[in-house]
Amino acid sequence: MKKKKIFIITGEPSGDLLAYKVIKNLDLKKYNIRGILGDNLKKLKIKKLFDNSSITFFGIKDVLLNIFFIKKKINDTVKDIEQYNPGVVFSVDAPDFVFRVVKKIKKNKKIKPKFLHYVAPTVWAWRENRLFNIKKYFNKIYLLFDFEKKYFKKFNMKHLFVGHPFFENFRFKKFNINTKSQNLITFCPGSRKSELDYFLPIFKKVILKLGSRYTFHIAATKDNYIFLKKYFSNIKLNILINHEPSKKEKFYKKSLLCIAKSGTISLDLCKSQSGFITIYKFNLLNYFLIKPFVKVKFINIINIMANKEIIPELIQSDCTSEKILDKIHFYINNKNFITKMVVDYNKVLKRISNKSTSRVISKDIENNL
Questions:
Q1: H or E, element range at 19
Q2: Of 38, 35, 36, whose CA–CA distance to 16 is shortest?
Q3: How far is the C-alpha of 15 from the C-alpha of 112, rounded, in Å?
Q4: pLDDT in tens, 344-363
Q5: Where does residue 344 rank: exposed (0-12), middle (13-18), buried (19+ CB within 10 A)?
Q6: Where do the domains of the chain lie, and which CATH numbers do they carry?
Q7: DSSP letter (8 states) at residue 222
Q8: Cα separation of the two ends of the chain
Q9: Strand order of the sheet with strand 88-92?
């Protein structure tokens, strides 16, 4: 029997991990699969067009500086998909890249795969009118968050709420602050170079101010591990740097408090039942271009779901070493507020937890082939 074909498009490492969780549920002997991959999908021996790291850019400035390179990657992807002629194009996140690829394929009319997209663009935050194009280009969108349903229903767009894969088999336990190491603080600066440029100088000042009373854990990625080791090498304090996921998770669980840039890491920290502070700082050009169009009051997804600040946020001009230190001292001196934070965000997490997310999507992909 001729094998059915699937083409996968992923952007950042988080998208690659989500796709991996879905695809590993398929009987891979039945399908031919290729695509734009990261380290997780490579474990499944899927054929690679190119690494997803080559299409990951941060902010408008980075995109403009690499515009011709991005256009070439889009054209290369379109050409490869048209030659491959899959039954399904399964894309995860990376909307700016994915949408341009799908638009070109639709316009060329050489093939007619079904386009299934996982992780909806943040139409609830800004540019809601993107839903017109989403409806035009995609057969179905898989939604992580229940509050997103009303936006897709409003535009009569086919969608399926699947919950969040990070919490597929999650057990909620009674939180106990005494299980935390009272002098361990974790910092999560992100993976992109532009994020490191913003946050590392701030983190360095905070660490130096806190001093030898504490042990500091820096969450690294495999790509920036060496750079971070060198960056903090001249500080004579107890600083531990890890890039292995299992080790990082252990530190998240033991940390009294974590300071993390906004993003997927927030859900990792929630999964570890950690108290944390969300920080973020945009390039000034990006900030002034985007700010007038943003419709949400918060940047952390938990706060957006709750429609109130459960996780403290320090954004843009508030993202300073002084204000981060103030927050750290507040929570260290008022540990009952860390407990309250975790209890409150667990109530929100129950809305997206234990939905068999990856299996539901893999089954739906099979049904669309």
A1: helix 13-23
A2: 38
A3: 24
A4: 999 999 999 999 999 999 99
A5: middle
A6: 4-169+354-367 (3.40.50.2000), 177-349 (3.40.50.2000)
A7: T
A8: 14
A9: 47-51, 31-37, 4-10, 88-92, 114-118, 140-143, 159-161
Q: Which string of DSSP letters, residue by residue, matches 233-289?
A: TT--S-EEEE--HHHHHHHHHHEEEEEEESSTHHHHHHHTT--EEEEE---HHHHHH
Query: Would the pLDDT of 124 be above 70?
Result: no
E strands present in the chain: 4-10, 31-37, 47-51, 88-92, 114-118, 140-143, 159-161, 181-188, 215-219, 239-242, 255-261, 276-280, 313-315
pLDDT of residue 292: 44
Start-end of H helices in 117-173: 130-137, 149-154
353 CB contacts (<8 Å, ≥6 apart)? 163, 164, 167, 168, 170, 172
Query: What single letter denotes the amino acid at residue 7?
Result: F
Model confidence pLDDT, tens digit, residues 243-278: 998 999 999 999 999 999 988 899 999 999 999 999
Total length of the chain: 369
C-alpha span between 366 and 88 (Å, rounded): 9
The mean of the pLDDT values for the chain is 88
Nearest-angstrom CA–CA distance, 25 and 21? 7
Of 268, 316, 257, 282, nearest to 197 (Cα)? 282
**Residue 52: which residues within 8 A CB-CB, separation 6 or more?**
10, 11, 12, 13, 15, 16, 36, 37, 38, 94
Q: Give the tokens for residue 218.
A: 């820096």
Query: Can you tell me the distance from the alpha carbon of 284 to that of 280, in angstroms, rounded to the nearest whole number?
Result: 12
d(CA 23, CA 18): 9
pTM: 0.80
DSSP for residue 319:
-
* Rounded Cα–Cα distance for residues 220 and 196 (Å): 10
